[in-house]
Each structure stands twice: as structure tokens, then as C-alpha cells.
Design brief:
The complex is a heterodimer of chains A (227) and B (228). Chain A has 6 helices and no strands. Chain A has 227 residues and is an all-alpha fold. In chain B, α4 runs parallel beside α7, α7 runs parallel beside α9 and α8 packs antiparallel against α9. Chain B has 228 residues and is mainly alpha-helical. Chain B contains 9 helices and no strands. Classes of the chains: A mainly alpha (227), B mainly alpha (228). The interface between A and B is medium-sized, with 29 and 31 residues.
Chain lengths: 227, 228
């Protein structure tokens, strides 16, 4: 059953990649094939966004709930995998920006907040590695992850308005609630978003199980790090 | 545990008073923060003062330097508020005797007053040494008070987190910067508007909103951070 699901995911993403290059048309007003990056960049950005929210929710469940280590492992794994997706989204965005805007980096509002998000969650991992005692580590990092969700709205809504304008194409889900996209492009984008999210939860699941094994090994062999 | 409001306030004030009493025994925070800020100020002033940059450039550059200076001074001094409790093993006594939210409030008020004292020393010197004409001094004061509060609130919570970690000194800057970044951008914008004289009323409100959010987050999260 599990093997079947993995093959289905492989098939799903393969179809999505094929669709991105062969099925979807090019968007108007973009240089060359550069609009095709949308099918990878947008789902990756969304997946990292969902990963960070999930990490915050799991942290809150850990901190204010029954302090179940399972939730802490889920939060840490979500944030770790989220960072990878976030870096991939940033890199693909920077390559696209080089083609369209002529520079990899120009501190567009979106580049500002994605940089701060990466810095924040990298700091989260730094905090985790700096606390030897396991229960203290879980407590402190959960609190820090929740603090991140408190500060995030300022990055999303307030700073972009201060820097004034953005060159970033209108997001698919925009304040006006209208979708301006060719139908076939939308199909591939939906395929990609679902596929990347399933990919995320699969990697997340592996990472959680790995973390459990690490903790069990530490309990059985090492002198330190146990709680 | 049931606490009346007045005993909660008394507790918060007792923590605040205790912080200042120990501070006056060593004058560690004021000495290090103040001297750090003044030495960096001298460096900036020599290179970028009246001889180094035109007035128009100074209006945009100086607020940034002022806040970077304050941030680094805070990063050098604030973590001590909690690191010291862990190092001198007084943290356990505090855990037994004080309500966490009152303790956080007391520490926060102490940090805020330290930052305000620092700003009171540094800003007039900064303005004088840079030949910086300030169009709206009241607005600059508002930026310093609100921005200083945000620095203190975010800094106090992060200090409580890192006090229980290893290598807490370097960790503070790493953890505090992403949290304080929106505050710094807003405070810099408001200071710049005060110096240039073009006031946008929405910025102080955003600054106030940041201060309020971090305070609420601190009161919610601190008990969990503080008590094992």
C-alpha cells in the first residue's frame, strides 16, 4: 500500500513536470520561457508557508497542551523541511528575477520577508542545537516558534507597504479574490501545489520517524542529552 | 494560585526595584551599554559627521546608524537580565517567589528604563556630534520611547529563552534580530520622518501594534519559558 502511494506521488509529480513544459502555454509579457518557473516556484513558496504554520501549530500544541514529545518532533521536522522548500523558492525566484528584472536580488518586499523568515527559522534550529537538555530544548524552541508567528504579520502586511511598490507578479490568491490565469496554467499549478504538499508531508513523516529513532538511540547509549 | 491585581503589581514593582538595586551595586548595564554606544558613536561621527556627509545624506543615513547602534548596545547588555540569574543561581529563588507574568513585567520595565536612559544619553550626543537638524523633536522622542519599548520587550523575552541555553551571548543576537527587525524598520522610518519633517501618522500606530503584540506574546509565552 505504501509503495503504491509512493509510485502514485511519483506519477503525479511527473505529470506535473510534463505539464509545466508541454501542456501549459507561456504567460504573456514574460521573457522567453521564464513564466514556467511559476509551476515550481509558487507551490514551493506555498508549501514552505504551510510548513511554517504547521510548525507553529505543533509548537503551540506542545507548549500549551500535554507536552507530548511527538508534537515537538513534528514541529521541528516541519520547520526543517520548510526551510528547504523556502530556500528552493527563494533560489528559483532569484533566477527568475535575473531573467525578468535583470538582477538576482533587489529587495523586493517578498524578498525581504522570505529572507527574514529563513533567518528566523535558521535561528530556531540554532536554538535547538544550543540547549543540551531535551525537555528544556522542546520548551524554549516551541516558545520561539510561536513568537515567530506573532511577528510574521508585520513582515507580511506592514513592511511591504512601507517599501512602497512590488515588481512581483500578482499572487494567485490576491486581495481582490480574482484569478487571472489561463486555464491550462491553473491546472498545472493546482497539480503542483497538491503534489508538493504531499511530498512535504511524506518527507516530514520520514523526518519525524528519524528524529524518534535518534532520541531512542540517545536514550539507550549516550550519557548526555537524555532527560 | 489566586492573586489580586494589587499584589501582582506589587510583585512586578518589587522585581523592577530589585533589578535597579542590583544594577546600582555594579552599574554593569549602564556602564557597558553607555560606553559601547558612545564609542561607536565617536567612530560614526569621525567618519560621517559634519565633514563626512552632506545634510541630505545624513537625514537618511543617521536614523539607521542610530538604531543599529541602539540594537547592538541592547544586544550587549540586555541578555544579562536573565543570564545573570542563571549564573548566580538566583533563578530558582525567583521561580519560587514570583508569579511568572509579574516577573516578566518587572524585568521588562527594568529593561525599558535602561534603554530609555541609554537613549537619553546617546541621542542628544548623536544629534550634536552629527550636526543633525531635527525638524520634529517630539516625534523623534516618540520614536525613541515606542521603539525602545519594543527593543526591551522583544529583548527581554529572547533573553529569557537564551538564558537556559549554552553560549547564550552570541545566541541572543541570532535569535533577537529576526524578531526585532520589523520594529527596527518601523522605528527607523519614524525617526527619519522626525528628522526630515514628513510625518506619516500610520507608522506610530504600527509601532504601537508591534509593542502590544510582543507584550501579549511575552506574557503568554514567558511562564512556559521560565518554569521547567
Amino acid at each position: 500500500m505504501k509503495t503504491l502511494l509512493k509510485w502514485l506521488l511519483w506519477l503525479w509529480i511527473s505529470i506535473m513536470i510534463w505539464g509545466a513544459f508541454k501542456y501549459a502555454p507561456l504567460a504573456e509579457g514574460f521573457i522567453g520561457d521564464s513564466s514556467r518557473i511559476l509551476f515550481f516556484h509558487v507551490p514551493m513558496a506555498w508549501t514552505s508557508f504551510i510548513a511554517f504554520i504547521a510548525g507553529g501549530v505543533w509548537s503551540a500544541r506542545y507548549l500549551f497542551g500535554a507536552r507530548d514529545p511527538k508534537h515537538d518532533r513534528a514541529a521541528a521536522s516541519a520547520i526543517e523541511v520548510g526551510i528547504v522548500f523556502c530556500i528552493l523558492a527563494t533560489a528559483s525566484g532569484a533566477i527568475w528575477a535575473k531573467v525578468m528584472w535583470g538582477a538576482y536580488w533587489n529587495w523586493d518586499p517578498r524578498q525581504v520577508w522570505i529572507t527574514v523568515a529563513i533567518l528566523f527559522y535558521a535561528a530556531y534550529l540554532a536554538l535547538r542545537s544550543a540547549v543540551p537538555d531535551r525537555d528544556t530544548r522542546r520548551r524554549l524552541s516551541a516558545a520561539y516558534a510561536i513568537l515567530g508567528l506573532v511577528v510574521a504579520p508585520f513582515l507580511f502586511f506592514i513592511l511591504p507597504r512601507m517599501t512602497g511598490f512590488t515588481l512581483h507578479p500578482e499572487p494567485v490568491i490576491n486581495p481582490e479574490g480574482k484569478v487571472e490565469m489561463e486555464r491550462r496554467m491553473m491546472h498545472v499549478l493546482i497539480l503542483g501545489s497538491i503534489g508538493f504538499n504531499i511530498l512535504f508531508f511524506w518527507i516530514h513523516n520520514l523526518r519525524c520517524r528519524l528524529e524518534t529513532l535518534f532520541e531512542e538511540r540517545a536514550d539507550s547509549t549516550a550519557f548526555h542529552g537524555g532527560s | 494560585m489566586s492573586h489580586t491585581t494589587s499584589s501582582w503589581l506589587a510583585e512586578a514593582f518589587a522585581v523592577f526595584a530589585k533589578e535597579w538595586r542590583t544594577e546600582f551595586r555594579t552599574r554593569y548595564a549602564l556602564n557597558t551599554l553607555g560606553l559601547f554606544a558612545i564609542t561607536s558613536l565617536v567612530v560614526v561621527s569621525i567618519s560621517l559627521g559634519p565633514l563626512g556627509a552632506a545634510t541630505a545624506e545624513r537625514t537618511t543615513v543617521m536614523p539607521v546608524l542610530l538604531w543599529v547602534l541602539l540594537l547592538f548596545a541592547v544586544a550587549a547588555g540586555l541578555p544579562r537580565a536573565f543570564v545573570h540569574e542563571e549564573e548566580s543561581r538566583t533563578a530558582t529563588a525567583l521561580r519560587l517567589s514570583a508569579t511568572p507574568s509579574a516577573l516578566f513585567t518587572g524585568k521588562l520595565l527594568y529593561s525599558w528604563t535602561v534603554v530609555l536612559a541609554l537613549e537619553l544619553i546617546v541621542t542628544p550626543l548623536f544629534v550634536a556630534m552629527m550636526h543633525l537638524p531635527v525638524a520634529n523633536p517630539g516625534l523623534l522622542a516618540l520614536a525613541l520611547v515606542l521603539g525602545g519599548y519594543g527593543l526591551a520587550a522583544g529583548g527581554t523575552l529572547v533573553a529569557a529563552i537564551i538564558a537556559q541555553a549554552r553560549s547564550s551571548g552570541t545566541l541572543f543576537s541570532v535569535l533577537a534580530l529576526p524578531v526585532l527587525l520589523p520594529l527596527l524598520v518601523l522605528a527607523i522610518e519614524l525617526s527619519r520622518a522626525a528628522i526630515a519633517g514628513d510625518f506619516v501618522p500610520v507608522v506610530p500606530r504600527q509601532l504601537l501594534l508591534y509593542d502590544a503584540s510582543v507584550t501579549v506574546a511575552g506574557l503568554l509565552l514567558f511562564p512556559a519559558v521560565w518554569n521547567p
